[in-house]
Automatic annotation (TrEMBL):
Keywords: Toxin-antitoxin system. It comes from Allosphingosinicella indica. Pfam families: CcdA. It comes from the Bacteria. This is Antitoxin CcdA.
Amino acid sequence: MRIMPSLNRKSATPRRATNVSLPADLIEEARKLDINISQACEQGLAQKISKTRAEIWQEENREAIEACNAWVEEHGLPLAKYRMF
């Protein structure tokens, strides 16, 4: 199984053991499918962190985004006359 490049961790990154409680049926199914549970948890956590950061950024920049959208609504796209479609 290959980790997505944006989620790839450097091999020199220190690792820390942790306990994670998962439903027994998921563990059994992962083992049947030869899925590396630690790697799958790491990928899922990395994706969740990325999504949460994006949500925080959107909320922090909501007013600026709304102002930009309002400007475009009122004035149109700045380079619209150069669009080929």
